[in-house]
């Protein structure tokens, strides 16, 4: 059994380009699917957030129309209630020792654009995990957190690596649109990462050694399966 760190946004709002506040949080399907698949495979999951705050699901991610059916929305809500104790007991990212974990998983929601992308503790954990060859698996908006990982010379630790993320097209057509304060795909490219995208809303995963990334909520289960396979091999690549 492996020990997995799940870094989750603690943000509840995103400041849009026009100055208005957009309610946000983690995306329910992404956190629930990843945790469910990983624990079913026999692994343990520790949830960490900035300052150890209790993470909040984006209300839209529990809307039946958004997730596809009332049954699915009800299932997600029930699962979050089931693990509410773990969410409330989230540990501060600042206290995390990356060497204690076999993988780091980062679900999205727009929240990471507010906190994780700029959090030095998240950056430290990711840099240490990458240096050790630990599996790192961000998906949807989760790859925004990779921007926080800086080398001593100020460059991004993951520069030159292959990755995918919620695309600019998906943000325009199904995210926060033209009010988006910044674009995750573009920001990753600007930081030197090689972003590989598939058609909008398709299940797409990119594996580059120990770095496993997914494009959107539709990729959640596929990312979890890749993590499980990597842990089963006992190697990241």
Automatic annotation (TrEMBL):
<dbReference type="GO" id="GO:0019243">
    <property type="term" value="P:methylglyoxal catabolic process to D-lactate via S-lactoyl-glutathione"/>
</dbReference>
<dbReference type="GO" id="GO:0005737">
    <property type="term" value="C:cytoplasm"/>
</dbReference>
<keyword id="KW-0456">Lyase</keyword>
<dbReference type="InterPro" id="IPR002818">
    <property type="entry name" value="DJ-1/PfpI"/>
</dbReference>
<feature type="domain" description="DJ-1/PfpI">
    <location>
        <begin position="29"/>
        <end position="229"/>
    </location>
</feature>
<comment type="similarity">
    <text>Belongs to the peptidase C56 family. HSP31-like subfamily.</text>
</comment>
<dbReference type="InterPro" id="IPR029062">
    <property type="entry name" value="Class_I_gatase-like"/>
</dbReference>
<dbReference type="GO" id="GO:0019172">
    <property type="term" value="F:glyoxalase III activity"/>
</dbReference>
<keyword id="KW-0346">Stress response</keyword>
<dbReference type="Pfam" id="PF01965">
    <property type="entry name" value="DJ-1_PfpI"/>
</dbReference>
<protein>
    <submittedName>
        <fullName>Thiamine biosynthesis protein ThiJ</fullName>
    </submittedName>
</protein>
<dbReference type="InterPro" id="IPR050325">
    <property type="entry name" value="Prot/Nucl_acid_deglycase"/>
</dbReference>
């Amino acid at each position: 059994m492996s020990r997995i760190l799940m870094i989750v946004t603690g943000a509840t709002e995103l400041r849009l380009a026009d100055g208005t506040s957009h309610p946000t949080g983690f995306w329910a399907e992404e956190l629930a699917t990843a945790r469910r698949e990983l624990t079913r495979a026999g692994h343990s999951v520790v949830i960490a957030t900035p300052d150890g705050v209790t993470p909040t699901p984006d209300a839209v991610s529990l809307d039946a129309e958004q997730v596809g059916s009332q049954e699915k929305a009800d299932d997600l809500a029930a699962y979050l209630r089931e693990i509410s104790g773990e969410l409330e007991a989230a540990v501060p990212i600042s206290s995390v020792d990356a060497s204690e974990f076999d993988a780091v998983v980062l679900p999205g929601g727009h929240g990471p654009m507010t906190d994780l992308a700029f959090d030095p503790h998240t950056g430290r954990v990711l840099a240490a995990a990458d240096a050790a060859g630990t599996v790192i698996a961000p998906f949807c908006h989760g790859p925004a957190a990779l921007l926080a990982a800086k080398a001593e010379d100020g460059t991004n630790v993951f520069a030159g690596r292959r990755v995918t993320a919620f695309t600019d097209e998906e943000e325009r057509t199904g995210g926060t649109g033209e009010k988006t304060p910044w674009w995750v795909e573009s920001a990753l490219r600007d930081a030197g990462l090689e972003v590989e995208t598939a058609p909008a809303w398709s299940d797409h995963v990119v594996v580059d050694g120990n770095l496993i990334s997914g494009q959107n909520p539709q990729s959640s289960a596929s990312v979890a399966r890749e993590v499980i396979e990597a842990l089963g091999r006992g190697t990241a690549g």
